[in-house]
Design a protein that fits this description.
With 559 residues, the protein is of the alpha/beta class. The protein folds into 2 domains: 16-278, Carbon-nitrogen hydrolase (Nitrilase/N-carbamoyl-D-aminoacid amidohydrolase, 4-Layer Sandwich); 291-476, HUPs (Rossmann fold). The chain is 35% helix and 18% strand. It has helices at 29-45, 70-86, 180-186, 204-219, 280-298, 312-325, 342-355, 365-375, 386-407, 417-422, 443-453, 462-466, 486-498, 503-510, 514-526, 528-532; strands at 2-5, 16-21, 50-52, 91-98, 107-115, 118-124, 148-151, 154-160, 191-196, 223-227, 229-232, 235-238, 242-244, 250-253, 260-265, 304-307, 330-334, 358-361, 410-413, 435-436. It has a 7-stranded mixed sheet, with helices on one face. Helix 5 packs across helix 6 (312-325) and helix 13 (486-498) packs across helix 15. The chain is elongated, with a radius of gyration of 26 Å.
Amino acid sequence: MSLRFDFAVVVLASMKIALAQFNPTIGDFEGNSKRILEMAREAKSHGADLAVFSELCLCGYPPQDLVERPVFVEHNQKALAKLAKAIAMPAVVGFVGDAMDATGKPVANSAALIANGKILFEQRKMLLPTYDVFDESRYFQPAHTQHIFEFDKEQLGITICEDAWNDKAFWPTQLYDRDPVSEIAKKGSSILLNISSSPYTVDKRSVRHDMLRTIAREHRLPVVYVNQVGGNDSLLFDGSSVAFMPDGRLAARAKSFEEDLIYFDTVTGLGDIRPAVEDEIDAAYRALVLGTRDYVRKCGFHKVVIGLSGGVDSALVAAIAVEALGRESVTGVAMPGPYSSDGSIRDAKQLAENLGIQFEMIPITETFESYKKDLSQTFRGLPVDATEENLQARIRGNLLMALSNKFGSMVLSTGNKSEMAVGYCTLYGDMAGGLAVISDVPKTMVYKLSKFVNRERELIPIATIEKPPSAELRPNQRDQDTLPDYDTLDRILKAYVEDVRSPEEIADHFGYPLQLVQSVALKVDQNEYKRKQAPPGLKLSSKAFSVGRRFPLAQKFIV
C-alpha cells in the first residue's frame, strides 16, 4: 500500500532531511512542543525539506503507566493537532496514537508525518520489546503491517526503534517472526526512517551503528536514524543520531549526550558529521553527568548535597554533580566519626576546595556515643558488631536528609555497583538519597572515571584514588577484610549479574575457587531486599539493579 500526498513545494532533485535530536521531559507537552517548533524553524531556515524527531518525543519516553490514563493520551493527541497547525515545515513526530483495532490495547506507539496543519500519515510500531527495561506490550497494541508514504518524490518508510532491531543479516537469532524494515523495503521504500528512544549502555553505540549500516547495505537504501537524548529517571539516552548511504557510508552523525540538529542530503550523501566520543570511559562520564543534571532538574530541584567521606566514590559523585549542575549548586558535607582518619578528613576538604563547592563539617562522634548509651541497656552483654557500624552510617544519612529538608537540596547517594551487589551498604544510611548516581558503576570503573576527571588537572586528590578503600566504621577497617579484591569481585559480578552465568561456569572460566564465586553469588541474591529500597540509579550497563532486573524477595532458589 502506498499513500500519496502532493506537498506544495518546489520539487528538488534530492531531499534535505533534518535530524532533530532533542531532550524531552515526560508529560511536558507544552515544553516538548515548543522545542519541536524551535528546531523545525531552524531546520527550515537551513533549507531542510523534512525534519525527523525521535520516538514518543511529544510526550517523552518512556511514559510508562501514564499511558493508561485517558487524560494523558488526550493531552498528547491534542498537542499533536496543535503542533501540526503551528509547525513551520513537514516533520515526523513520535506520539501516542490510537490503535485502530477492535480488541487489545487502545493505543499505539506511533509516528506522524505532519504539515500544513494536518496529520498526513501515521505509522504504528510493530515490534514491542519486553526485555530488560522495556515493557511496551503492557501499554501498546502492535501494528499489523507497514506502509510507505510518497512525499516530495520519495517513498518514505517509517519505522520506530525496535522495528529495526530484528535484521537477519545482522543478528544471529531473531526475537520476532516479523522484520518491519524488510517488509517496508519490499514495498518500494526509497528512504528508511527510524525514530528511536534507544537507551545508552556501555558499548551499545557501536553495535547500533553497525546494525544500521548493515540495514543500509542489505536493502541498498539510505537509512536515517534519530534518537532521543537526555535522562528520564534511570534511563540515559545518548542521541548519536546518524544517516547512512546505501553503500554503508556514514553520511551524517549528531553529537552524543547533547541536543543537536544536523542535515543529510538523500542523493548527494552530504551531511554534518560531528566528532564521535570514541572512548567509553569518556562516554560513560558524559552519560552520568547528563543523567544527574536531568534527573535533578526534571524533578524540580536546583541544589544537591553529598556526604564526603574522603573516599573515591563520594569524590567521583561530587565531581559529576559539579559538572552537571555547577559548583554553586553543590554542597559537600564531611561527617567524621570516631574511626575517621585525619587523611580522609583532609582529602574531603581538599576535594571541596578543588571543586569550588560549599563545604560543611558535622562531627558525629557525640551523636554516636549518645546512640550507644541509649541502647546500652537493651544491648547489654552483647558483643559490638555490624550494628554499631551501621549506626554511624544511619546517623550520617539522617543528617544529610535533614539538610535536604531544610535547604531543599536533593541528596545524592554515593554507593557503587560492587557494593550494592553484595550488600556492602547500609539501609537508611549511606543508601539514603534521591538519586544513586554511580549505583551501576563497578568499583574498578569508579577508579577509571576518577582518573578521567583528573585528565586536565587534579580535582579528585591523588591520595583519595591511591589509598586502600575503607568504610572507616571500625579501627583499621579495609573493604578487602570482607570482600575479594575489586578486580576479582567485579569480574564475578559482571558474569553473574549481567551475563547470567552460573557460579560453576564463572569459576571454570576465570579459574577462581568455586566456593569464592558461590559466596559472591549468595551475597548478591541475599541483598535483593536492600536494593529494592535504594534510590533510583543511572543505568550504564546491560543489567542494572535499579531497573530492568526483577527478582522476587521471598524465595528459596539458591545457586
